[in-house]
Write a structure and sequence with these properties.
single chain, 9 helices, 4-stranded antiparallel sheet, Rossmann fold, 2 domains, 32% helix
Length: 282
């Protein structure tokens, strides 16, 4: 459904460069796109949305090359949610509904009204007078209102309270079950991905660290905790990253590199946040 093949993006005047990014996302699955600030996540989303062009490589969406010739069909089947409202503040949801039903060929008035009622959003209040939570709910309603086969979300839950974030995840699950759509979910809030993602793609400094399903990720990466004295029982070069003080040592390590465990030491599955933290600190 989505294929990135050996994507490069060089800005020339800036130090940042996206280098040889390849991953795929099939319909019916949710992929978390993670990485620290400046890693390249938003660049990847802008490339997918055809807002910028790659320096090299190919992007396919719905089996079609992501070109201007295919742009109308592709955009008609994509729903997008960004971290900030992209709509003029003088508009309201009623006017946006009119715009969307005239732009998108599969606008679903019944489902649109269902989501508006569910989220209790005023259709007549201007966007400039809406709360941040309602602005995000508005984006979600519009993104899901036209039976999109692919949902693209760039930091949709940043700055939102836990109630709104939980609503967002619940609606995404329901929409995926209803339509079998694919979702690309870029976020720093890794706890959300622990609940909803099927796959994780990790970008750091413009490079692909890994792209894998979340169960493989949990099985592969471990956190090992020991005392500062006991750390000598392990080869520190086996750790992807670690931290220590005069009493304790804690590090991220691949399961295959754990040869034996000293009695009293602790091993647990690494969270997505753990993996980002120790990789980013390298």
């Amino acid at each position: 459904m989505l294929k990135l093949k050996n994507i490069y993006k060089d800005y020339y005047d800036f130090e940042f460069e996206l280098k040889d990014i390849s991953f795929e996302l099939e319909e019916g699955y949710i992929m978390g796109l993670i990485g620290p600030n400046g890693a390249g996540k938003t660049t990847i989303i802008n490339l997918i949305m055809n807002l910028i062009k790659p320096s090299k490589g190919e992007i396919e969406i719905f089996g079609r090359e992501n070109t201007l010739e295919n742009n109308e069909y592709i955009k008609d089947n994509i729903g997008f949610v960004f971290d900030k409202s992209i709509y003029p503040e003088y508009l309201n949801l009623d006017k946006l509904e009119f715009i969307y039903k005239n732009i998108y060929s599969n606008f679903d008035k019944e489902y649109f009204d269902e989501l508006v009622e569910r989220f209790k959003i005023s259709k007549l209040k201007n966007l400039k007078d809406q709360s941040k939570g309602n602005l995000m709910r508005t984006q979600i309603v519009l993104a899901l209102s036209h039976n999109a086969k692919f949902i693209v979300m760039d930091e949709p839950s940043q700055g939102l309270d836990p109630v709104v974030r939980r609503e967002l995840l619940k609606v995404l699950r329901e929409y995926r079950e209803k339509t079998n759509a694919a979702v690309l979910f870029s976020t720093h809030i890794t706890e959300d991905l622990e609940q909803i993602a099927d796959y994780i793609t990790f970008i750091n400094k413009g490079e692909l660290i890994f792209t894998t399903d979340i169960e493989t990720l949990r099985d592969k990466y471990k956190i090992l905790k020991t005392t500062s004295q006991n750390k000598t029982n392990y080869n520190l070069q086996d750790f992807i990253g670690f931290e220590e003080n005069e009493f304790y040592f804690s590090g991220l390590i691949e399961k295959q590199n754990i040869k034996s465990i000293v009695e009293g030491d602790v091993i647990r599955d690494a969270t997505i946040q753990d993996i980002m933290y120790y990789y980013y600190g390298k």
